[in-house]
Amino acid sequence: MEQGNDTQLSEFLLLGFSENQPQIQPFIFGLFLSMYLVTVFGNLLIIMAIIVDSHLHTPMYIFLSNLSFVDICFTSTTVPQMLVNIQTQSKVISYANCITQVYFLLLFSVLDIFLLTVMAYDRYVAICHPLHYMVIMNTRLCGLLILACWIIGVLNSLLHSFLVLQLSFCADLDIPHFYCELNQVVHHACSDTSLNDMVIYIAALLLAAGPLSGILYSYSKIVSSIRAISSAQGKYKAFSTCASHLSVVSLFYCTLLGVYLSSAVTQNPHATAMASLMYTVVSPMLNPFIYSLRNNDMKKALKILLERVTRNRPMDLPS
Questions:
Q1: CA 315 from chain center: how many Å?
Q2: Which N-terminal residues, if any, form the signal peptide (predicted)?
């Protein structure tokens, strides 16, 4: 892409996982299609179960339904484009689509991070201040927290996308990845990227390390409160309300950390792509299983939902 008012938009090539092994492309297509369908179906089940069961109309499950919606969008930003490229045997993604993909990837990843942080705060209030839970976590506060997550995500995505649009790109537009990852796109520019690098670094500190600190602080208080409970049954009950969320947080941050460690330690782009696969595809796919298998209330809601569907009974949606 050349600088100037009559700039010609470039096309990027997403090399994916097997540019030198076309014979395994059908296997990769089937694998990613299956994972995508499981992700969408599983998270939709979570959302529908929460909508149908009035007992789940609490802050914890309102945040969970939003997380499931974001996970569907997160995966939908990358996998369909990859499936199209495999099916058409084309690695091309247009400049406009690449920038759009960067924007939505940043948006939904930040939403994931902040929703997990808000859910940690919800568990902190529920366990450390149980008598004041319904007063503190009222509907207005829940709405404001979700709105704040979206505002922060949108502003962050707009900032990075705007800075990428200021870059000029030369001939080397091969991205060894299955989607337009921000660092990869920025480092393929032939203009100065120092401002982009600085903003990426600052945003990572504020929007990833900051919320993680909040989650760790919340759980340090939760652990202290649980230790103060005298009965073993009470301790187990208190911890069980956090187990699913803690599992999702661990999965998300471990895979996210793996992406950046692999890119920093190794120069092998395929290792980074595999780590990114865990972060963008596997984690959203596993979240519904973690919440449904470790949560009795969710199991009951899913059972009610499936019974209504199999009996072709109309679902009594709340007014």
A1: 29
A2: none
Minimal CA–CA distance to 27: which of 36, 18, 37?
A: 18
Domain-located, residue 253 = yes
Q: What is the CATH number of the domain that holds 100?
A: 1.20.1070.10
Residue 62 DSSP SS3: helix
CA dihedral defined by 250, 56, 112, 92, rounded to 10 degrees?
110
Say which residues have a Cβ less than 8 Å from residue 33's Cβ, sequence separation at least 6: 83
pLDDT tens digits, 59-102: 989 999 999 999 999 999 989 988 888 888 878 888 888 899 99
Instruction: Give the CA distances from residue 67 to residues 44, 57, 109, in Å, rounded to whole numbers and listed in that order.
Output: 11, 15, 11
- Is residue 69, in this structure, part of any structural domain at all? yes
278 vs 248, residue with greater confidence: 248
In a domain, 11, yes or no: no
Domain, as residue range, for 56: 23-297
5 in a structural domain: no
14 SS3 class: strand
If one counts the domains in the chain, the total is 1
